[in-house]
Predict the 3D structure of the following.
Amino acid sequence: MLCKMSDLKKYIANRKKKDPVFEKNYESGFSHFKIGVLLKQAREASGRTQEEVAQILGTQKSAVSRIENHAEDIRLSTLEKFAKSVGRKLEVRIV
């Protein structure tokens, strides 16, 4: 079943009201999720598989999967290597 974005926003707002821990951790968790999504999109846009990126990085496919799906504690050097492996460069901004 597909849900509308407004339904998701309502769910998140209600959950934040009811769950202080969820509210406290939501922004950082969402940021980590977005990083993983961006990495996966960059890899897919480059036409590379997880296995190909793993070979370039000198690691296993499972490590690339972890990077894309659990990017909460990833080093900048790893992000730079990942970006380079898919023909991109890493840009960090503080806003």
Observations:
- The chain has one domain: 5-85.
- The longest helix spans residues 20-46.
